[in-house]
Fold this protein.
Amino acid sequence: MPTALATFLRRFSGGDPLTGRPGAPGGGLPGGQDIESDLEITLEEAYRGGEKALQLTSREVCPACGGDGINNNSFCTRCGGTGFNSGLKTLTVKIPPGVREGSRIRLKGQGGAGFNGGAGGDLFLKVRLLPHPVYQVQGSDLETEIVIRPDQAVLGDQADVPTLDGPVAVRIPAGTGTGKRLRLRGKGLPGRDGARGDQYVRIKIDIPTHLTSEEEQLYRRLAELRKGV
Ligand SMILES: [Zn+2]
């Protein structure tokens, strides 16, 4: 299971932004701060969901001095007078299937620690889709490119195209030009309404550069025939 190292954007839920010490609304025990972080996942992970180990740097209020940095009239030895302790922790994040770019996954109580037994803040993970080598994402639609030969473009053919559900045989119509997009309905990502977007297959024609003498003869013959049209 891959482990992602998250960098933190700290968000203070009220209180002092320098010490991170939140206020205590309603006079209850002060809670920890909410923390927001990015979660980078692949398109496949977003589509199928699953679990991912996430390594976080945590910065928590020093329990020895309560965040003051001073203990018994001298600098706190536990935190070196900073009032905070840093550490690494590993969490397992459940990724719901069909999660979208920008969605937030909430991990209750995994934010900053509370004070004096107060509840911990929450950790919000904002989903970021990593660039994919095969698919380009446009909203809930996907786009892929396939490369075909000139004869396939002229005569038509069938080609295997990768989709999130596995390869699909796609019919290439005769006379397909470069840049043409074929639509695979419902092979995209789940949209806001739950319905899946489409996958577009962009056609690129590969012009052969190393011809056998027989191929070259045939191309010359084709050229002669074209002149007569
Ligand atoms: Zn301390």
In short: The domain at 3-129 is CATH 2.60.260.20 (HSP40/DNAj peptide-binding domain). Residues 62, 64-65, 69, 76, 78-79, 83 surround zinc ion (CB under 6 Å).
